[in-house]
Design brief:
heterodimer; A: 194 residues; mainly alpha; B: mainly alpha; 8 helices
Chain lengths: 194, 204
């Protein structure tokens, strides 16, 4: 493992293989929590944090499961780890950083069912990443999510005031917007690191 | 128990994807070919029906505070079963759906129906709800699959349909196509629902 591989993983997770625009992971919060830039950034930051932690913990849990010959319990074990982790983060924030806790509000528990979090844990196993690679992939994947949701919220604030056909009100116009941003992100696909 | 009403709700008025806007990730990600759509739709339908039945049976036992965690464990159990079965008997489909099979655990349709329906209704009604919502989901997947596979690849279920001279609109099988075609489909649904409501009002 070298700095180059880590850099390649990071660039891939943020730009070329963005969790939202290329892999379709975490679309629900992406569409649900992107009406305002502030909340979008809060959500993105919280997801980044949980994705990094989940990658680290899931790596350990997976090692234990394999040692016990319980590989088929992976999905169940991962979702339980993530649920516990989110609960723990929630309690920690409530006690020590109450301002951030109130800012995130209801979005915090919802991270449990964010498929980007479970997705990153499963992808780490699939790609055979070691511990450091897993954590880097988790954090940069989260940063990719943050970038995507920030850009999307910024565009969406504008489309609120634009004129469009009535049938496209709400989600359809948001999806079309997302599609156009995804198109822009496709431009990164030729990007190569060394 | 009103079978007809539930059927109509699952397929049209309360369609999980087009009206409730649940389960978007898998809908956009895997609708690039009909086999994928069918595999995903049927898997979700089976898991949704089974988890609805179990959760409805347990609805009086599960304490309210930890219900979400209980639901997820039930769902994760069924997802693991389906995942293993697919890997054993339909390895091609399992390979092309990849990470999206285990991700059914966090598919909001299943948790959403558990929370909104199965935890409040009888076993029979919950089972029907699972089947009909599953059908509604599968139908949407298949519509999107047909559209994207036919125009984006020139094939249907792997068979060449379009004439040789047709240049596939590659864009549609790429992620962009997922966003655009689902957006257009939801818009069409909103248009149709608004129109039928207008008709009803005029009839009154």
């Amino acid at each position: 493992m070298s700095v180059t591989t880590l850099l390649a993983i990071s660039l891939g997770a943020i730009l070329t293989n963005n969790f939202i625009f290329a892999q379709f992971l975490g679309i629900c919060p992406f569409l649900g929590v992107s009406k305002k830039i502030d909340t979008a950034i809060g959500m993105g930051a919280a997801v980044t944090f949980v994705m990094g932690l989940a990658s680290a913990f899931a790596y350990g849990v997976n090692k234990i499961l394999i040692a016990l010959d319980l590989g088929y319990m992976q999905t169940v074990a991962f979702i339980l780890v993530i649920a516990a982790l989110v609960q723990f983060v929630e309690m920690f924030l409530k006690k020590f950083i109450p301002t951030l806790y109130t800012a995130l509000g209801v979005y915090l528990p919802l991270i449990t069912t964010n498929c980007a979090v479970l997705g990153v844990a499963l992808l780490n196993v699939q790609n055979n990443y070691n511990f450091i690679e897993s954590v880097v992939y988790g954090i940069t994947g989260g940063l990719g999510f943050l970038l995507a949701i920030f850009l999307f919220a910024a565009v969406r604030e504008q489309t609120e005031f634009s004129e469009h056909p009535k049938a496209f009100d709400g989600f359809p116009i948001a999806l079309i917007t997302g599609g156009l941003i995804a198109l822009a992100f496709m431009g990164f696909s030729g990007l190569k690191v060394w | 128990m009103n079978v007809k009403k539930q059927f109509k709700e699952g397929l049209i008025t309360q369609n999980p994807v087009l009206v409730q806007l649940l389960g978007m990730c898998s809908t956009m990600a895997i609708t690039t070919s009909i086999m994928n759509g069918l595999g995903m739709g049927v898997s979700v339908m089976i898991i949704l029906t089974l988890s609805n039945i179990i959760i409805s049976l347990l609805r009086k036992v599960i304490p309210n505070e930890v219900r979400i965690a209980c639901f997820i464990v039930v769902i994760a159990g069924f997802v693991t079963c389906v995942d293993l079965l697919l890997q054993a008997y339909l390895p091609d489909i399992a390979a092309s759906l990849g990470v999206f099979i285990p991700l059914i655990v966090v598919n909001c349709i299943i948790l959403g129906r558990a929370e909104a329906f199965a935890s409040k209704n009888s076993v029979g009604a919950s089972a029907l709800d699972g089947i009909f919502q599953g059908i509604g989901y599968t139908v949407v997947l298949l519509i999107l699959c047909c559209f994207r596979e036919l125009l984006g690849n020139g094939t249907l279920a792997g068979r060449q349909i379009m004439p040789e001279s047709y240049t596939p609109a590659l864009l549609l099988v790429l992620p962009v196509g997922g966003f655009l075609s689902l957006g257009a489909l939801i818009a069409a649904m909103q248009w149709a629902l608004a129109k039928s409501e207008k008709k009803k009002k005029e009839a009154k």
